[in-house]
Amino acid sequence: MTRQRCRGGFLALVSQLSGSLSTMRDGGDVRRQATLGQGAAGRGWWRSGLAALVFPATCPGCGQVAEPVCERCAATLVAAPVAPPPFGVDAWVAAFAYQGVARELVARLKYRNARVALAWLSGAVAGAVAERDGFYGGSGIVTWVPTTPSRRRHRGFDHAELLARVTADCLELPVRGLLRRLPGPPQTGRDRSERRTGPRFTARLLPSPASVLLIDDVSTTGASLSAAAMTLRANGARYVRAATVARTPIQATANYCHGE
Ligand SMILES: [Zn+2]
Question: What pairs with residue 215 in β-bridges?
Answer without folding.
Answer: 144, 243
